[in-house]
């Protein structure tokens, strides 16, 4: 069956395609179109999700039943070849997802390093020649051009590619399939927008976009290319159902994390902790395979690039911030400082979330005015960022180069922690070393344990505030923007500050304090625990820090949870995605159905006339109908459950009525409709 | 309410205690005893689990509903103090579980190291004086005495403490509460039996028992001590329900893994991957907290012991096998060797599982004859192990000490990899270095990268076969015996063998091959992926091995899964614990209810007379009854679901009947019973 609906064209189409595939497997009713299925749906901003309301096409929870039905009917009659085909293809798909995500991540790394490196070299050379205005012009010019590219892509081609993408993927995996979240155009913009955005020097990360990219790749491969662009394969028909698609996208999200942080185990845990609600052990196994593939691909490609074959990219191994091998030993003062860090992280994190939320709401007013306004906003923020990156270092005094270091000082090349900026020979500007470099290099400098006095206290304070507020005002503009890197930067700077202040009496070195600071701020904003812990471990390869890191994360999450929700949850709420938590909010205990439904209420009784059902389907645009038994069948009106439009269509198409229990001549078709409704209700109970 | 049932005395009691606590919260019906609830149940060996059959008291799945009911009715009327009390106590309990598990693990470590160390020193000194027979007598004597202690404890006090304990904990967390699995006596025997067993030189680990110990501690704390020994606290009444108990025991199991391997993240993942079916994000968070506490406790205690204040225990940090810091770089030959290792691991693993199963079945015949037979079996295996440990090293030729090593050779003290055994000065016996030492030290030697030629090929072959077969015949005797250590030992030996053979052409060193071998064999027997990976990482602190480790685990698990199931699953089946997999086996598709029920079939219809219900409850010992609607209510007999004995008792006690819909004078109490049955069925749908 060739469904005329395209998955990325419309939410309703997705539903239809799914039903289409069921029909296909179901047998002879496959030729019937769904004339009563809604084709377009509007999005509202209500947070309360209702299965069947016309908010978003929420996936039905019936995939288990449907799959079981499928198996019962068809499995035994199918040839073994088909079963083998299914299993083999699923693994092939998972392998392909891992491979592609690894390749995309690697391409992203190389592109960012080369573009940003070129820009920084240019600026640095002009600075060396003391052409200060030209240097600023070069920096700001490059930034604005790159930012404009990212913004144009994002605003005109795929608005859904803006932002982190993690909230959207999370929402998708929890049953909310919002408009074009995983479309190929989104994928395209996410990849290139992220490269331009990060290279433009914004305080954004590539981690969130990489997760989204992984999910998009999984979606694209899972449906065998896009129907819109005539890139589809028939042999992928088995995967055109909610369950397989969700599995694949979970793998894709895990692969994204694994690729972004080069953290395969962290990827699995992220998918588990943050993303997926429907978790099965088979999924763990498959996700693990995907991230292993990503790790192997990345490892091989990094090996390949060791000999400067990839331009400016070439350093670094599989572990991104493997720069601090200090063995942590700590005394009571250290422990107190760590607890303090946890509390600070919690407070700063919740304030950060609060401010991000406010800024996002402001930006969404601007963004709604049209694509040109979005691009303008991006350009303004880009100029602001450039001013900040170029202007703030002037506040720092020049520091004489230390004698006892191996690194060259001041730095000659692009990377390195001792940028000379405006300073005379033999001196370096510590703020410039943090600001006029890539975000990854800045993190490396902060985590480093080589020179505890590398950064002055005032510089760390300036840098913290710059990162904190730039991070807040940058998220929400129309570029793909991850939150991890800004948060790590801000956290590491206050962590290093604490370490610097306590240096005379503390045992832990300043680099480890920076790591703990990053952990505390991440815990305070993202509110993840196990996956963050593993990701940070895999980022820094310092397993001995584990107990301290767990402590910091526990404290910061607990403190921050007193004030508000995690930043991804806030974004999900703000975007109006009807995300249902695993546990009900307290206020929901007082809600009645009337609070959440829209339009006139159409109910069916457990036994219903087909003509009534047809009439209701034609007259309303509701996606679900409560089934209520009323007296005299029961002693009080009783809600049996909810029947979805799509279920009713299946029944109607299959003509699954009975004439068995006619109570009067007019009510011919009631009996079996009753049974089926009951069965459906039971299945969702 | 003081329930007269004790949780550890009897399965039925556990069910009753749960119902008791519900009643307690429910209100005024708390004084009613359950005369119809069965007090004793027999265990069968059928693998097919039926809720309600008289196999094992399987926990009902209704805790969500019950808790919701509880909340709806009581939550608003309760004082805020009580809510705070609940939350505070849960965290306190979790903290206590972490603390106690950490302390117990540490006590275990110190005891084992001191007892085994004393034994090995004694034997070593006698060997140095060339008193070979006396040395053997000392070794075998110590071993037999220790083994007898362990066996007597295990056979006479708590037979449930034999074996690993992981299958039982897994079964418990998946709803099967077998007899006295988590009783205080089991805890006691598990702690001391494990110490004696490991110290007795058996090829057993302390990891499985530690997981079981953690679960027992959690159970003990969760119910506020044992009722049997009058050690209970009233303020723990909130936790006397299935859900909280399961949560706590999950935390306990995670704490056990964390304590055994000093691997906090591995503990969380183990609990997630292997143990718990009912996983919620709150549980992740709580488990993480528990294992963090364990890590901090262990870290502090190990710091404390650095100055030889703990006898022979004193070396080692938080990472147990942190002995190989070689940076893995590999070529094509290495990769092929690694794939080969994975395949070997899968094949050896599945054969291992097969043989363990056969041996277990043989042993269970012996064990059933009575406690004295069990002790005898333990003594026989102990003598066999001693013969092996003392006899096999005579097969090895003396090797001249290498010149370029820092370690002393031959070893003077207790630990060290160069035991002289029968060799003249300046020589060492490599097999003795592996066999006449603690299992941990043997693993350390195998993983070590210091001297690639330390072990000869023939010695590694002998050692592999010794460990492989001793491991198989040791599991199943009446001592607490973990499977991890034997599997790691055997795997590491063939891994090192491959590394040794490929040394001239491979890039990876032999120690890393040993690690990969251990991973492959673990994957082939346990069939875990993510948690094993993380545990091995935390054991060895070599993050760069991650991609290779993932590869090996994937291959070995895939290969082994072609032949049979994981070893824990096999043990669960063999013990007759009615464990239900997340997915149905193919043959179950053809099962009908009649295949699994016992006794005469008693069914209720959706609408049932109270007198019928009462009569059936009195006459049968069934724990559940199918509810079937028959014509004329439906057009064909239709199974509505299953109602549990305990549910019926709740209804009967609450007198929740109605007289609304009397069809005849005799059928007075039918109406509401119908509704309630429907509701219960719905809730479990």
Automatic annotation (TrEMBL), chains A, B:
It is a multi-pass membrane protein. One of its GO terms (cellular component) is chloride channel complex. It is found in: Membrane. CDD domains: ClC_6_like. Residues 1-27 are annotated as: Disordered. One of its GO terms (molecular function) is voltage-gated chloride channel activity. Keywords: CBS domain, Chloride, Chloride channel, Ion channel, Ion transport, Membrane, Repeat, Transmembrane, Transmembrane helix, Transport, Voltage-gated channel. Residues 1-11 have a biased composition (Acidic residues). The chain crosses the membrane at residues 83-104, 110-128, 135-161, 181-204, 248-272, 335-355, 375-396, 460-489, 501-522, 534-555. Belongs to the chloride channel (TC 2.A.49) family. PANTHER family: CHLORIDE CHANNEL PROTEIN, CHLORIDE CHANNEL PROTEIN CLC FAMILY MEMBER. This is Chloride channel, voltage gated. It comes from Artemisia annua. The lineage of its organism: Eukaryota, Viridiplantae, Streptophyta, Embryophyta, Tracheophyta.
């Amino acid at each position: 069956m060739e469904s005329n609906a395209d998955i990325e064209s419309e939410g309703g189409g997705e539903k239809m395609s799914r039903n289409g595939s069921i029909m296909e497997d179901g047998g002879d009713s496959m030729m019937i179109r769904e004339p009563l299925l809604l084709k377009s749906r509007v999005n509202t901003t209500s947070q309360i999700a209702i299965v069947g309301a016309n908010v978003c096409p929420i996936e039905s929870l019936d995939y288990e039943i449907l799959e079981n039905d499928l198996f019962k009917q068809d499995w035994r009659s199918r040839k073994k070849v088909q079963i083998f085909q299914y299993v083999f293809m699923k693994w092939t798909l998972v392998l392909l997802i891992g491979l592609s995500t690894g390749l995309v991540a690697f391409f992203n790394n190389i592109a960012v390093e080369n573009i940003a490196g070129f820009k920084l070299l240019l600026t640095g050379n002009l600075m060396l020649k003391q052409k200060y205005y030209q240097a600023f012009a070069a920096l700001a010019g490059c930034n604005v051009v790159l930012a404009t590219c990212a913004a144009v892509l994002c605003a005109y081609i795929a608005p859904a590619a803006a932002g982190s993408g993690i909230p959207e993927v999370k929402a998708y995996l929890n049953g909310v399939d919002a408009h074009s979240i995983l479309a190929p155009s989104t994928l395209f913009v996410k990849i290139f927008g992220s490269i331009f955005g990060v290279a433009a020097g914004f305080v954004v990360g590539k981690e969130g976009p990489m997760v989204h990219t992984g999910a998009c790749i999984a979606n694209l491969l899972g449906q065998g290319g896009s129907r819109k662009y005539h890139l589809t394969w028939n042999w992928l028909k088995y995967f055109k159902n909610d369950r397989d698609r969700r599995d694949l996208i979970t793998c894709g999200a895990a692969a994204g994390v694994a690729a972004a942080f080069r953290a395969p185990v962290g990827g699995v845990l992220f998918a588990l902790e943050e993303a997926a609600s429907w978790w099965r052990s088979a999924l763990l196994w498959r996700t693990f395979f995907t991230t292993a593939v990503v790790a192997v691909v990345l490892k091989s490609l990094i090996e390949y690039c060791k000999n400067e074959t990839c331009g400016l990219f070439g350093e670094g191994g599989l572990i991104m911030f493997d720069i601090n091998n200090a063995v942590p030993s700590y005394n009571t003062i250290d422990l107190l400082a760590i607890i303090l860090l946890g509390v600070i992280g919690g407070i700063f994190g919740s304030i950060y979330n609060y401010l991000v939320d406010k800024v996002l709401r402001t930006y969404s007013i601007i963004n709604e005015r049209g694509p040109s306004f979005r691009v303008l906003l991006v350009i303004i923020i880009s100029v602001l960022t450039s001013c900040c990156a170029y202007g703030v270092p002037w506040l720092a005094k020049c520091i004489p180069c230390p004698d006892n270091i191996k690194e060259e000082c001041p730095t000659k090349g692009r990377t390195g922690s001792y940028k000379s900026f405006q300073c005379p020979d033999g001196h370096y500007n510590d703020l410039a070393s943090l600001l006029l470099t890539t975000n990854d290099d800045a993190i490396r400098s902060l985590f480093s344990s080589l020179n505890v006095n590398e950064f002055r206290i005032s510089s760390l304070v300036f840098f913290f505030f710059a990162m904190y507020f730039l991070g807040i005002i940058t998220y929400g503009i129309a570029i793909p923007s991850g939150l991890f890197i800004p948060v790590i930067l801000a956290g590491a700077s206050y962590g290093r500050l604490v370490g610097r202040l306590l240096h005379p009496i503390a045992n832990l070195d300043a680099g480890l304090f920076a790591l703990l600071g990053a952990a505390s701020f991440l815990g305070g904003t993202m509110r993840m625990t196990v996956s963050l812990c593993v990701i940070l471990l895999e980022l820094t390869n310092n397993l001995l820090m584990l107990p301290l890191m767990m402590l910091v994360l526990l404290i910061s999450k607990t403190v921050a949870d007193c004030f508000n929700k995690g930043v991804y949850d806030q974004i999900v709420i703000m975007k109006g995605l009807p995300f249902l938590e695993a546990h009900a909010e307290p206020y929901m205990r007082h809600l009645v159905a009337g609070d959440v439904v829209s339009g006139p209420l159409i109910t069916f009784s457990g036994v219903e006339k087909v003509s009534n059902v047809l009439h209701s389907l034609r007259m309303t645009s509701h996606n679900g109908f409560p089934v209520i038994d009323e007296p005299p069948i029961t002693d009080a009106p009783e809600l049996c459950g909810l029947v979805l439009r799509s279920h009713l269509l299946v029944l109607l198409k299959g003509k699954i009525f009975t004439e068995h229990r006619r109570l009067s001549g007019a009510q011919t078709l009631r009996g079996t409709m009753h049974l089926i409704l009951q069965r459906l209700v039971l299945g969702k109970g």
